[in-house]
Write a structure and sequence with these properties.
202 residues, mainly alpha, 73% helix, disordered C terminus, transferase, transmembrane, transmembrane helix
């Protein structure tokens, strides 16, 4: 198998970049209340998020750039959705505050980790699951802002996913804190080199 960690032009990276480029378009669609297109784009973003991880492993195209692009795209979609849905009054400020507080907390954790010479934290399955729960909940909440029985069902399921995703998001923060403690207590990283298998925590 060919080592591709330093490669830039890979299929997974192209998918992550396309997902990033779709963030401003998605944000505009939400604010313009073009909900059908916004939901479709968000669904495509979620599918590409799943696909780029699968392809990276299947094609042996895991790369350092990919470990940066993937969580960056996830965070930007969550941010764009939170701002857009809050402006439209679909979700309350307390949900935004809870997720924002978690991001601030994780930012502080990463600052501490980097001060000890590590580039980041290994991505945890719970953190990835939390992100996917939130990304799946947003199109349902957007759909639930309309009339009809289907919209009502979408709103109920969307809120279930959103609350579960938020709880997992904070649980992942606890797990990342434990990982940070373990890294700091471990042997120091190699001088002048990045740590293998380390990426920003989602």
């Amino acid at each position: 198998m060919v080592e591709t960690r330093d490669r830039i032009f890979t299929v997974p990276n192209a998918l992550s970049l396309a997902r990033l480029l779709g963030v401003p378009l998605f944000f505009w669609l939400v604010l313009a209340e073009n909900d059908g297109w916004a939901i479709g784009l968000l669904v495509l973003a979620g599918l590409s998020d799943w696909a780029d991880g699968k392809l990276a492993r299947a094609l042996n195209q895991t790369s350092r750039l990919g470990t940066l692009l993937d969580p960056a795209a996830d965070r930007l979609y969550i941010l764009a959705t939170l701002v857009g849905l809050t402006v439209r009054g679909i979700i309350p400020w307390w949900l935004v505050a809870g997720l924002a507080a978690r991001e601030v907390y994780m930012g502080l954790v990463l600052v501490v980790v980097k001060r000890h010479g590590w580039t980041g934290l290994p991505v945890h399955l719970v953190g990835k699951a939390a992100t996917m729960c939130l990304l799946y909940s947003f199109p349902l909440l957007l759909w639930g802002d309309h009339d009809g029985a289907a919209a009502t069902a979408a709103r109920v399921v969307g809120w279930a996913w959103a609350l579960w995703g938020t709880a997992l998001y904070w649980w992942a923060a606890v797990l990342y804190t434990q990982q940070a403690r373990q890294l700091i207590r471990a042997l120091p990283p190699r001088a002048g080199a990045e740590n293998e298998g380390v990426a920003p925590a989602p």
